[in-house]
From TrEMBL:
InterPro entries reported in the protein's UniProt record: Gfo/Idh/MocA-like_OxRdtase_N, Gfo/Idh/MocA_oxidoreduct, GFO_IDH_MocA-like_dom, NAD(P)-bd_dom_sf
Name used for this protein in its record: Gfo/Idh/MocA family oxidoreductase
Species assigned in the record: Rhizobium calliandrae
Domain Gfo/Idh/MocA-like oxidoreductase N-terminal: residue ranges: 15-143
Domain GFO/IDH/MocA-like oxidoreductase: 153-290
Chain residue ranges for the region called Disordered: 186-207
Matches recorded under Pfam families: GFO_IDH_MocA, GFO_IDH_MocA_C3
Length: 395
């Protein structure tokens, strides 16, 4: 992956990064830290890694943080870091969903850029308020829908934007898992406990956790905007308070004179045999594409009336958008962590441009607070539709 200013003489100083959440035992916090370091654009220098003072201190010590910059309150961290001469320039928020709004607001109000895990917030009212804070702050807001960072996802997006599929007719997205097949939240499994708790996760279970990823990916690749949906949600596991399976019909807004595209989305956390089965298929008047996250370096492309073709990352037929976010030669697999790192590096490019007062490179793409609002609106529309026996709900 080409990084601007990457030589010792010309490279930009690493961006001073803080983190909220992500203490000992937290899966996604470790992923964010790895992603932030892959392209060597960030230094983690401060953290409010846990609300428990003892756990916050221990987690900070394990990460080599200065004890004076290890906090148990994200508000204390925002206030103090904003006053320090070498305080953080950006913060990663990797907490359960219900903390996102309050934490992000504290940093945005002080001009600190925010890199936040998805979904944006646990409810639409907070999402809209956070967008207003972000818009007024002058700081950047980056939402880590990491699947948009895969090179072949960028390839698919470029092909559709260039008209190679013609007018889009059908969009099929799915994200099945099986890890919540049993009621493991009752056993104390931390990830399951908060993700199935409406007070922490929000109104959506599988829809909020993984359905938002499938929805965001479909929108990112096709450039289509969702008009309305009809949802049938279930909680198959007895006693579970949030959905663990969702079947959705999608209607997209028309683009110009094109007939509106239709779609289907399936998200499930009780689909036995599936680990992280994110898949996207898009069909237009001139051709179709298929991408699977479990095999992310390959994109299947079928021009109408011609044999099916395999486009490989950095291989023949792969274009500039994919090459821009690809780090190694074709045949060597790039995966989940590298895709996540792409979001961090795009964030770094935007932050560095903002520091210089120059326009960011038009090739820089990352999910924003606006995408976050759409994601939360999607979840609440799913829940509203399902409660009305699958009635169509406009977004």
């Amino acid at each position: 992956m080409a990084i601007e200013g990457s030589s010792e003489q010309t490279r930009e100083p690493r961006i001073r990064l803080g983190m909220v959440g992500g203490g000992a035992g937290a899966f996604i916090g470790a992923v964010h830290r790895i992603a932030a370091r892959i392209d060597d654009q960030f230094d983690l220098v401060a953290g409010a890694l846990s609300a428990s003072p003892d756990k916050a201190i221990a987690s900070g010590r394990d990460l080599g943080l200065d004890p004076t910059r290890t906090y148990s309150s994200y508000r204390d961290m925002a206030i103090r870091e904003a006053k320090l001469k070498n305080g953080i320039e950006a913060v990663s928020i990797v907490t359960p969903n219900h903390v996102h709004y309050a934490a992000a607001k504290e940093f945005l109000r002080r001009g600190i850029h925010v890199i936040c895990d998805k979904p944006l917030t646990s409810n639409l009212a907070d999402a809209k308020k956070l967008k207003k804070v972000a818009d007024e702050s002058g700081a950047l807001f980056i939402l880590t829908h990491n699947y948009t960072g895969y090179p072949m996802v960028r390839q698919a997006r470029e092909m559709i934007a260039n008209g190679e599929l013609g007018d889009i007719r059908i969009v099929q997205a799915e994200y099945p898992q099986d890890w919540l097949t049993e009621n493991i939240e009752q056993s104390g499994q931390k990830q399951a406990a908060w993700r199935t708790d409406p007070s922490q996760s929000g109104a959506g279970g599988s829809t909020g956790d993984i359905g938002t990823h499938a929805y965001n990916l479909a929108s990112f690749v096709t450039g289509l905007e969702l008009d309305s949906l009809a949802a049938d949600l279930d909680s198959f596991v007895e006693g579970r308070r949030l959905d663990d399976n969702g079947h959705l019909l999608l209607r997209f807004k028309a683009k110009g004179s094109e007939k509106p595209a239709k779609g289907m989305l399936w998200c499930s956390q009780v689909a036995l045999g599936h680990e992280n089965g994110l898949k996207l298929r898009v069909y237009g008047t001139k051709g179709g594409i298929e991408w699977t996250q479990a095999d992310p370096n390959y994109l299947w492309y079928t021009p109408f009336g011609e044999p099916k073709r395999l486009i490989t990352r950095n291989g023949a037929g792969s274009g500039a958008a994919a090459a821009r976010v690809s780090r190694i030669p074709s045949g060597h697999p790039e995966g989940y962590l590298e895709a996540f790192a792409t979001i961090y590096t795009e964030a770094a490019r935007a932050i560095n441009a903002r520091k210089k007062g120059v326009a960011v490179d038009p090739g820089v793409v990352y999910p924003t607070v606006d995408d976050g609002v759409k994601g939360v609106a999607f979840v609440e529309a799913c829940v509203a539709s399902s409660k009305r026996n699958g009635a169509w709900v406009k977004l």
